[in-house]
Amino acid sequence: MFIDDLRADLDEIDRLGLVRHRRSQQSPCGPHVLRDGREYLSFCSNDYLGLAAAPALVDALAEGARHWGAGAGASHLVSGHYAVHDELERALASFCGCERAISFSTGYMANLAAVGTLAGRSDAIFADRLNHASLVDGALLSRARLCRYPHLDLDHLAHQLATTPARRRLIVSDTVFSMDGDLAPVPQLLELAERHDALLVLDDAHGLGVLGPEGRGSLAHFDLVSPRLVLIGTLGKAAGLAGAFVAGQADVIEWLLQKARSYIFTTAAPPALAHALLQALDLIRAADSRRAALRELVAHLRSGLRAGGWRTMDSATPIQPVIVGGNRETLALSRSLDEAGVWVPAIRPPTVPEGSARLRISLSAAHARADVDRLLYVLGRREAGA
Fold first, then answer.
1. Taking the domain 20-49+288-383, which CATH number applies?
2. pLDDT mean values, one per 10 residues, the chain (386 residues)
3. Is residue 151 among the annotated active site residues?
4. Is 159 a catalytic residue?
5. Do 245 and 102 meet the contact criterion of CB atoms below 8 Å apart?
6. Which CATH architecture fits 55-285?
């Protein structure tokens, strides 16, 4: 029976140490949370600037709801598009240095739209093997030929581009890779796009707000402007709220508005959220001190991990993986930290490659140096078997 097959597959997931569980928080997002009735020091969220519970954003969201109501009521192309959505999209385009932007309800939907709509059956998509799952799904939905290249292997990518018979080509990459924390060589990717007449689609989910002058993201970090660039940004991480956008050349954005199924066939995000996101952009611009504090925490953590003999990766971003290897060993380490009141998630395949299960430590400007010291202390005790 169908259900019996599902149950057998679930048993196999359990045998492999790949069962996932939800954890219910009873407090706002922050470095110190109440979860399942107990207090924890959390290194789990992508709230990199500590804005998710910022009073200014809470007030802006409430103000937006009072003015615009609680919901949009329809899809954007029916009656769910409001003046404040227009204002937000103009602000996002300006913030990222692009001609135009279009907003989405989630980053996953934005990635499905950008990749799945800009390529078709006769085209080719060239994607870093460690790209986020939503970029992979967008490529599969496009029905284009998907050519994956080894992580950051530009020579392999250049060969693929030089030998493809495809008429239209998309190079697709994360800017900051969500499980490794490393940064894509964006200038070199753009050079390849220009040499081989391709568009370069970049998912800046973990760069926006953190990288570049005023937190304007990876394009500003590398000082890049080009009509070949298509930038995807997520607003549920450093921006502290929810939603996403795609920004780029005006005709590209118009094409998405006309053709992207994940934009056309869904209810628009509440206009109250757009109102609050305008405030979030102002807070990001003014957050240089938060970004400086975050960089200091990253350096302090990495120094402590190296001193403790932990296996880290080449990441200067708030995403700091500690490689353990086996699924069950990683789960055991995560649980031991949990017992000590420190919440660090265990990341296992298929999210990461086989044999590279890890703890994924996410830092926030809301963390204190003492929080990092506590994490390092507990990790040290667990490594010593205490």
1. 3.90.1150.10
2. 92 88 92 95 97 97 98 98 98 98 98 98 97 97 97 98 96 97 98 98 98 98 98 98 98 98 98 98 98 98 96 96 94 94 94 93 98 96 58
3. no
4. no
5. yes
6. 3-Layer(aba) Sandwich (3.40)
